[in-house]
Structure formats: C-alpha cells, structure tokens
Amino acid sequence: MGVLALAFFYASSVNLVLAVFNLLPIPPLDGSKILQSLLPLSWHPLLWRLEGYAWLSFLLLLTVLRGPVQEVLRFARRVFFGFFFG
C-alpha cells in the first residue's frame, strides 16, 4: 500500500503543478484566456499581438521569475495535500 500511496502523491503533485502552471496569464496558456474574458474588448487586439511573443514569456518565466513561480507552486501543493491528508 505504501508504494501506491507514494505513486499517487507523485502523480497528483505533477498534475497539480501543471494545473497551476496552465492558469498563469501568459499566452497561449488558459490563464491568458481567462484574463482576456475579464478585460474590455478594446484590450483584445493587444493580447492577440502578445500571443506572438509567447516563447519570450516562457523564457522570462523560467529564468527571471523562477523563484516566485516555484514558491506559488509549492504553496499550492501544500494546500492541496493539506486538504486531502490533513
């Protein structure tokens, strides 16, 4: 049973990290679509133009903002597992 619990822990950790990462408001991730739906229509052309620079956003995210992003993901993982495992 211990091996199954450990496998569940790692699988759900990866799934949670990917879910939180996908919600970041960076094109082409889903978070940018959520942000776009909350902004006025006049902002949409700007967001569409920014989608062409998505690779730069990922590079920025993975280099400059690596520490803060890791902290957000670590916090989300603690909350998630605290909810399920007390």
From TrEMBL:
GO terms for biological process: proteolysis. Keywords: Membrane, Transmembrane, Transmembrane helix. Pfam families: Peptidase_M50 (PF02163). Residues 7-60 form the Peptidase M50 domain. InterPro entries: Metallopeptidase_M50B, Peptidase_M50. It is a multi-pass membrane protein. Its cofactor is Zn(2+). GO terms for cellular component: membrane. It is found in: Membrane. The chain crosses the membrane at residues 52-69. PANTHER family: ZINC METALLOPROTEASE MJ0611-RELATED, ZINC METALLOPROTEASE YWHC-RELATED. Belongs to the peptidase M50B family. This is Peptidase family M50.
